[in-house]
Design brief:
mainly alpha; 45% helix
Amino acid sequence: MLRVFRPEKLLYAFQLYVKNQMGDFFVASIDTSMANIYKDTNVLTPLVYVLSTGADPLQALLNFAATLNMSEKLRRISLGQGQGPKAIIMVEEAMKVGNWVML
């Protein structure tokens, strides 16, 4: 009935249903700032972004690296044809000297 009479309220109704049935955790927005995400990483837990169309965390990462004085240690490479071996070398070097690598 909601879909027929008030289609603009459908998303809200779904969120309310999930909240009532499963709890706030499943509908609450999370803080996705680089500083907050960084707290959950360590040398054994890398940060991996799975991007959707139009998403680009590059500027946020560059700004965050600057706040930690890591700009000089941030390496970037676009993965494409023939870039795999170069990326492997970058990652191996980063593991030795403490650089960051963005693939």
